Amino acid sequence: MAATDTTVVLKPRPQVVAHSVPRKRLSWIEWVTGTDHKRIGILYLYLTFAFFVIGGVEALLLRVQLGAPDNTFLTPQRYNELFTLHGTTMIFLFIIPVFAGFANYVIPLMIGARDMAFPRVNAWSFWMLLFGGLVLYGSLFFNPPEASWWNFPPLSSVQYSHSGGSDAFIVAIHLIGLSSILGGINFIATIHNMRAPGMGWSRLPLFGWAMLVTSYLVVVASPALTAALLMLLTDRHYGTHFFIPSVPGSGIREGSALLYQHLFWFYSHPAVYIMVLPAFGIVSEVLPVFARKPIFGYKAIAASTVAIAFLGMLVWGHHLFTWPISTIVFAFFMISSMLIAVPTGIKLINWIATLWQGAVEFRVALMFACGLIGTFVIGGISGVMLAMFPVDWVLNDTYFLVAHIHYVLFGGSVFGVFAGLYYWFPKMSGRMLSERLGKASFWTILIGFNVTFLVQHSLGLSGMPRRVYEYPASAGWTGYNLVSTIGSFILSAGIGLTLINVVRSLRHGRVAGPDPWKGNTLEWFTPSPPPANNFDAIPRVRSVEPMQDLRRAIQRDSERVGGEAARETVSA
Amino acid sequence: MRDRRLILQMLAFFLVGTGVLLFIVLDVVHWFPAAATAQARNVDRLYKVMLIVSVPIFVLVETVVVFSVWKFRMRPGQENMDGPPIHGNTRLEVVWTALPAILLLSLCTYAFTVLHSNEKKKANEMIVDVTGQQFTWTFSYPRANGQPPVKSLELYLPSNAHIYFRIHSKDVIHSFWIPAFRLQEDAVPGITTDYRATTTNTAATYPIVCAVLCGLGHSTMRSFVHVMPPGQFAAWEAKAGGPVTAAPGQAPAALGKQMFTSSLGCGGCHTIADAGTSGTVGPHLDQVLKGPKHSAAFIRQSILQPNAFIEKGYPANVMPQTFGAVLQPTQIDALVAYLRQVSK
Question: Options 3.20.170.30, 1.20.1250.20, 3.40.50.620, 1.10.760.10; which CATH number does B252-342 get?
Fold first, then answer.
């Protein structure tokens, strides 16, 4: 830990330091009605982490069921409900909104703004998310959805899922989608219009780039899912038949189950990038700070974010390789899916080049960022394999795919979430997280995660399909499944350590000061936690690392003027 | 100087790591089941090429990450130092954009040629219609000169033959997957999908799996494919096309038990202690076939029209409603006889 308080001598620079505003205790009414982006960000984080825990418990129940062959711990119906809830919760109620939470807190601070562009819309986004989650989990008291997170017809049509679970899913995703689209518009408006003076596009922090591009993806792709679900709703209850194939002898003209798949994946593939680009953005912020070295290839990383998003809109067909679509269309989707590995690879290589020759400081945030590089590369490689459709024909919808999605969404996104949590927690709470508990948590998560999911590749290769509630002992999958189940408990223990760390540090953590990491970006320019107005004065931005510039300016001034200038305390 | 030594160390680590890992994935562990078609061999070769390309990339990334955080870790006394102010290098960026792009496009081309040869139409293809429904597969072999097709609940194929599958679904989406054939194609209601397989000359039995979630009994939607010499296959087809009878001296109930446990897949959903099955999707048949439900008429109706009576606590529309169309009267009688016998 570097010295946190340096008293330096400098020329009068009265406008750059924010004085702290006295904090008063917040009553719950202020939380409910508040529009401060920081408070909304905190609400997002609490809510999404609560859903993370719920989704994790569901995953453990699933793993217990699969831990032994012919297990009767769960009935098939409970099992189907649980994996539907697990997928829906983790994707729509945890990973996507948790980044909205981080971005809500951090983006205005990073770009030197005093709030989001539309504070009330921002609050509305949060409450829609909460209501969406309540609708989904309200169904627990009736019939939870059980047609997987795809909720795809005909299985989700009224003929095969006549319970209301499918409707609860549709309404919940409508609300969550609204939340996410409004949030996206808000981030776009904020990042376009409210950057600090001097912060041109080539000086926008890379997390800002990630959120901007992600927001565009949300705004462009989400309406397709909303439309598909609305069509499904009218199919279920109002006599339309968009997705219902012809019924012989009934005179009904045919709809197509394939149409739903196109609409669904037109959103749900970009959704993978909606979930993983912000995590990449966090890594791009964390690495240069702890490698004590500027990010390598700023422009290449920013451009690759845009390239990933653009290609990401053109690859949804690779989810349909086992569907009746002409080969030449598949050839196009295969090429676009493989090419997406190029900009992703550019990011990985630039991150590694950032670490190279640095003075790498072993903080938990850095460990999670490096963990992301190390595990995501497995998800990336298995993704390239699945993108080759002769291979996809063997491995589609097997545990190989389950392993792949978890290496991308846990090894990519969730490691990014944890890196962000350890990096920004001091800013949000004013207190440091325990490094010892954090490191224990990191290693437990890394080991537990790989024990859980690495063997699932083998399961898929040897023929275990996903979404089965049981398997015969004769299949030879017992050992792998048992290992995976044990791993899932190790993983949960690791996550538990971080949760304990957060709860403890909120009370007892060491006081952080405004800039505990010697950060590069403007959020470290204001006290921790920041006052309601964020900054009293917003400095002029002259590079991607305005805080480095300020530190250098202060040092220069102190060297030049020596003891003659006025003394001023700058917390650095 | 320090850099050169570091790079040599990394190179050694990389070579050893790649060698060991490639040895493990190519020579030691074989996860795939045996390849049972010509197409499967092509796919396996493609998969191996992918492994040979991927493993070095994986090891390279891990090596560089581990070495750079370890070798460039902050040492005591460096707390206030910064690394060199390197912001990037355009020439390097171009190189590491172009190389992966070329590599990926060539892999793409290779994958496409594999697909092209696997999908090529062959002369003398034998057609098999595959129909998925909750939660069974039905295989139907069209016959010449107007005879009704031969139907079966397990798939029988001659060895060394070109097979052309036409895949249909009666209700929801299923996926017809034979891991040993390395082929998976969705069965979509309203659309006929297809795929081709050329069996090898090995006679063996492989599992058939439904790969797409199709409802509560999804995990029980399993069957078998039997690849057999052409003569044996012809004999099977002639027998299956004719009326089914119990083997000489076999009681109908014995034939029923054989059907219950094997070809029909009843045991996937229903528990009967006598048959040794433990499915829990449908009612426990040792327990529910009591009192008035013990009658032959009730059992027959429950097989042919499962929705006529639904046991409390179980949803309708789960049991296939097509046994009447698939089974011959002798077979239904045998099944009824068996179920009456065990539930006494």
Answer: 1.10.760.10
